[in-house]
Amino acid sequence: MRMRQAVVAALADEMRADESVMLMGEDVAAAGGPFKTSEGLLDEFGGLRVRDTPISEMAFTGAAVGAACLGLRPVVEIMFMEFLGVALDMVVTEAAKFHYLSGGRITVPMVVRASVGSGGGFGLQHSQTLENWVTATPGLCVVVASDPQTAYGLNRAAIRHDGPVVVLEPRALYPVRGDVVTGDAGIVPIGRARVLRRGADVTVVALGQTVGVALAAVADAGVDAEVIDLATLVPWDRDTVRKSVRRTGRLVVVEEAPESGGWGHEIVSSVTSAVFSDLTAPPFRITSPDVPVPYSPALEARYLPTREYVARQLTSYLRSGTVPAPWWIEEGLAR
Amino acid sequence: MTSTPSSHERRAALGDPVQAYRRMQEIRSFEDRITGLFAQGLVHGTTHTCQGQEALDVGLANALRLDDIVTCTYRGHGIALALGMSPEAVLGEIMGRTSGCIGGVGGSMHLSDLDVGLLPTFAIVGAGLPVAAGAALAFQNRGEDRVAVAVCGDGATNIGAFHEAINMAAVWKLPVVFVVDNNLYGEYSRINLTTPVTDLSRRADAYGIPGESVDGMDLDTVGEALSRHVAAARSGAGPSLLEVRTYRFAGHSRADQATYRPAGELDVWRQRDPLVLRRAALIDAGIASAAELDAVEQSVRAMITDVVEATSAVPEPDARAMFANIMPPLATSTGGVR
User: Fold this and answer.
1) pLDDT of A275 over the 50 cut
2) What is the separation of C-alpha B27 from the centre of its chain, rounded to a whole number of angstroms?
3) CA-nearest residue of chain A to B102?
4) Which stretches make up the Dehydrogenase E1 component domain (chain B) (predicted)?
């Protein structure tokens, strides 16, 4: 099934299993979702459990907090991740804090699903990933889908978790097809990375849209790389990544985010400190440049690290043992 | 000392007019004492007291069932005490002690007790309105006849959450009452400097819901209005907006001497002190004598003194407390897709 259908299946399976699960968002009911990620749910579950909202992210995300405190398990859909900016208080400062602020007596089992990323020609206010808005808040889990299976399994795990979870879904992957194991066997546990390819020479950590890029680049380059889909960004699977890097001695993180302040800093820093003596080359990050996501297809195609670029960087890194310069420095476009 | 009443007993006691007056006195004495504790260095950080707004606090508690839900602001000591939380739990939290309602990790702005319907009080202006709407949504989805009440200040009427929450609640006919405690000042700024329409219940027209403004200094007036609005929400009539006109006798927070107020304004409002009005009403109606009410006031002050003394002896939390209750445990199942 397509990734967008996997999202529908996850929501439907959880709503069938538990009548406290509900969905709110802009155009999620009658229209079936702007990206068709809730098609058919209104018909099956009715207007109380599948609600079209006003264009009021603060209101409906906040309503999810209140409903979750009182025993529902709401899922809210944020059409574009950028729109969470006007409701961030409800996620970071309210939902993530209420368990702590009630001495553990209140749980806030809510899910914030947001479409993210470049590749659709949506322009610079609708194409960011912005995961770092939500990664420095204890109490909040953050997971990122990379294919139909993880879109299904992470959403189901998120709905079942008793605390707030942000689920990021790369928008460009919604039409991508893949086999999906459904049912409880298809749940992807929060906090566990997925080792998608075994390898001995380098550990490549990717997330969301860069997972497919990394797998393709490794195949193109013909390098013996271990490819890990981090899947959960908070709390990320330190054990799996460290164990892999101890064995390979090298670490590359592939990110769809501006170079400065990206999530890969956390991975590189933590792993370097933990396994320093096992490293045979400096860990490094392959990222987007420090620019807004440009609109022109010719430019947008270079924003996300391409498979050719990642393959070239990996090959150079493995051959020289040193960190290659990013393309914008090689081409003299930025410092 | 007599045995400590439970939060439910404290709530039920408000049905008695003298006990309701006693609770208003308790809130006033409590808030006055908090101000003093700062001077002694026994309370740190910040706090926002509510002297002058006791009629709203007690009127609200009396209008609600125990299973109704309240969201309120960081000026929440009075509502917490009125709903039934013990002075020990509230003061313990304000003093950062283990006896606080959440063991001292929250402080003055973060009081909560779901047993009396109080969600954690909000330190973000306006944030309680969408959350109250969400509680009401849960009641609506389950077909329960419970009500949520969001209490915000006049300053909150200018933040987006206020507009978004009321609009959405109106569209969905949620069982929620939006109460604006208009004490004339948003932090340090007078309402006319920040708000073009100062008759705040007129905002209701924008959402097609009932709006009403009432005197917030008289317990009977504010209590009757709140009961009516809560009953309407409970009956399925949808949300409403109630402006309660009060006055903040103290400054915004502990550092604020409120020198920006026009000369004489405080004195005018002091003549309508809710405690003074209530005391006179009880005596006029023959419900209690002046001597009896004097005794109530003395007894309340002595009780607060005892609570302060007892709380000062309670230990501060150890480091384990800061690592507790960050989030519920993740599923430990080893199954699923790798």
Assistant:
1) yes
2) 10
3) A103
4) 22-318
